[in-house]
Amino acid sequence: MVVEVIGSIISGSLALLADAGHMLTDSAAIGLALFAMWLSGRSATAGTTFGYHRTEVLAALINTLTLWLIAGWIFFEAFRRFFETPEVHGDVLFGVGLVGLVVNIIAAFVLHRAAGESLNVEGAYQHVLADLLGSVGVIISGILVLAFGWYIADPILSVVVGLLILKSSWGLFMGVFKVLLEGTPDNVDMYRLCSEMEDVEGVTLVHDVHAWTITLGYHAFTAHVLVDPEYPGDSGELLTRLRKIAQGFGLTHITLQLEHSAAGCEEENHHVDHLIARSMAEAEGAT
Known about the structure:
Structural class: mainly alpha
Distance between the termini: 66 Å
Strand content: 5-15%
Number of strands: 3
Helix content: 55-70%
Order of helices and strands: HHHHHHHEEHEH
């Protein structure tokens, strides 16, 4: 980052300064990710029954928003330079960009191994990945300046980098957004899950179903299971079978309530539209 700041002053390059600013937020993003991981490892209490796992999701959200602020600043500065394009030293631009590329490739390699296991680490990884793209843009800008004297390439490549930052951060934002909305995990087919549970002997209906993500890899599931009052089997064994079915869908925190009557559950959100989907599928199969 220090090298890029010095290089931007010497060369007059916006692309280098933008990349340096982004590298500063990279450090903050990784620091925030480490703090969130430490905080999420604290034990649950009576006041925080799910612990502090969501701090990782909030850290990912903060990282996403900072990426958007950086992109906005890059667009603003690039717009100014389109009308007053300063002279840029292509050799400095190329050399510093090459050093930045090597550093960011190493950082991206280190973070990539754990990025798929945590939205928090994914946020830090996206920062470094966007910075890597920034270094590529700086190198291309330096080549164009050296080869053709195209000083306008500097703000143009800055805009391209800004767009790439927005694109790379959008998927992260949608993942965070879905977790905060308590959306159903992507790997859970709720219709199939309910149908498989209802295929178990003794089960009449699965209703009041909820599935959501606490943090990446930690999915919760609750449901009420209406059991045939004349079912002769052991309710403990039935509950174990149902839990194994839910675990097969990647659900980890499972709470099932066995009922023998639908009385008293009029106010519940029953979520039984899977029955409609199943009957439609059976009807199509019959035709």
